Amino acid sequence: MRVAALLLLLAVALSPFCALADDVAAAQGIIRAQEQAFVRDDATAAYSYAAPAIKEIFPAPDIFMSMVQNGYAPVYRHKIFEFGDSKTEGNWIAQRVHIVDANGEAWEAVYTLEQQADGSYKITGCSLLKAGQAV
Description:
The protein is α+β, with helices and mostly antiparallel strands. Strand 2 and strand 3 form a beta hairpin. It has helices at residues 2-39, 43-48, 52-57, 61-71, 73-76; strands spanning 78-89, 92-101, 106-115, 121-130. It starts with a helix and ends in a 5-residue tail after the last strand. The chain is 48% helix and 31% strand.
């Protein structure tokens, strides 16, 4: 009986951490799905992962894709795209991504995502710096 009570207490105590891990996994899934849409040149799919505020700035998938191609070339075409650390705060997640672009140069991207009213996450932004570059 004591073992069952201890396990229940442990499960309740750890449940917020499990929920955070689930949220981070969901956010990484969204980022990965958008990254794969870029690989396929699927503007409509890539655009579907953008938050409403991004869609206000770039009102159509082709406009959004052009912005990514011209301003985020390492995100659009790369050799390596690996997840790093993440940080959660409320309904926001910041996810670091290590990127090696098509020319072999290293980059660090920080994606921000916000949980929507339906519980899904959407990408609200991406900051991109060459690896080792000061902020």
